[in-house]
Amino acid sequence: MERDLLIQEVLRLKAERQAVILAHSYQLPEVQEVADFVGDSLGLAREAQRTEAKVIVFAGVHFMAETAAILNPEKTVLLPDLEAGCSLADSIRPEDVLAWKKDHPEGIVVAYVNTKAEVKALADVCVTSANAVEVVARLPKDRPIFFVPDMFLGAHVARVTGRKLDLFPGECHVHAGIREEHLKALLEKHPGAEFMIHPECGCGSSCLFLKPDAKMLSTEGMVRYAKKAEAKEFVVATEVGILHRLSKEAPGKTFIPVKPDAICEYMKRITLEKVYLSLKEMRHVIRVPEEVAKKARRALEAMVAVG
Ligand code: 13P
Ligand code: SF4
User: Fold this and answer.
1) d(CA 302, CA 97)
2) Superfamily assignment of 89-171+294-305 in CATH?
3) 212: CB partners within 8 A, 6+ apart
4) 203 annotated ligand binder
5) Where is [4Fe-4S] cluster annotated to bind (predicted)?
6) Is the pLDDT of residue 209 over 90?
7) Mind listing the pLDDT tens digit for each residue in 257-295?
């Protein structure tokens, strides 16, 4: 089907199904353009909780659709491609959390939302990159804390809050690939640019050493910052899908990807055609068993309540 017709059909089916399309900022531009809401993990979780639509088409990856399903047990959540996974969410198993809990019966488990529902169900609270610092800073000071699964985000949170965190050695293959040498090269080429860095990046603390005024931001934080900052040129260290939103929402400014091949193949599995098929055939419904969802919901609601 040709593109304009596909867009028309998506919009028609969306109305017919009383559906809403929620898209992550790393989605293909064509998918972002048909979405009702485009945002980061936190914004999407909040929007999924707020929407009155009967059906949520989740243009993102599996753990995000699961989060929406956990927060909305009465709604139908669709993921247009079941292969849209996440290397970070795959890096940790429930057994890893249980082993730590056994050794730390008084401990607190903080789970990044980039985890499967079974891992969230074992956590006390969830976080996203947008609120991890705030959530961790509020935790009791006299109990051990296990931060899972992203070690780079965990190290960033430990540095900013001054809290001691046990870190799980997980990483996102896209962000872990963004390293000190990439930043160094861009710093030499664009000495006047502002640097916006996602805390999942593998450059970790070395980027702050190279560029002490670099901003560590979630994807939404980058859009917000770029809109209000006076600078005209920004170096962006995250998945390149964010550039579509940045150029659209902060026109007249220049955004330079620190690594142009930082592409999440899982996010890119969702195409306009798959969104159309998802609405047409009501596929693929994401369901989380209620005994898991009930526990995971507690940790997610504890997160959504902050800020
Ligand atoms: P945020 O959208 O929360 O910044 O997370 C980035 C990410 O990697 C999501 O998969
Ligand atoms: Fe997962 Fe990384 Fe892709 Fe985000 S960018 S969905 S963390 S693999």
Assistant:
1) 19
2) NadA-like (3.40.50.10800)
3) none
4) no
5) 86, 172, 264
6) no
7) 999 999 999 999 999 999 999 999 999 999 999 999 999
Residue whose CA is closest, atom 6 of ligand 2?
86
Structure tokens at 157: 């949170």
Please write the tens of the pLDDT for every residue from 98-131.
Answer: 999 999 999 999 999 999 999 999 999 999 999 9
Q: Which of 87, 128, 148, 238 to mutate to test the pocket of ligand 2 (most atoms within 8 A of CB)?
A: 87
Q: What fold is seen in the domain 3-84+267-287? A: Rossmann fold (3.40.50)
Cβ neighbours of residue 284 closer than 8 Å, sequence gap 6 or more? 78, 79, 80, 81, 82, 278
Chain CA centroid to CA 68, Å: 13
Contacts of 266 (CB under 8 A, 6+ apart): 61, 83, 84, 85, 86, 87
What is the average pLDDT score of the chain?
Answer: 96
pLDDT level of residue 307 (50, 70, 90 thresholds): low
Instruction: Assess contact for 171 and 152: CB atoms under 8 A.
Output: yes
DSSP character string of 64-95: HHHHHHHH-TTSEEE-S-TT---TTGGG--HH
Residue keyed to tokens 């979780």: 45
- Taking the CA atoms of 285, 290, 292 and 293 in sequence, report the sign of the dihedral they define: positive
The preferred substitution site among 67, 79, 267 for testing ligand 2, maximizing ligand atoms within 8 Å of CB, is 267
22 lines ligand 2 (CB under 6 A): no
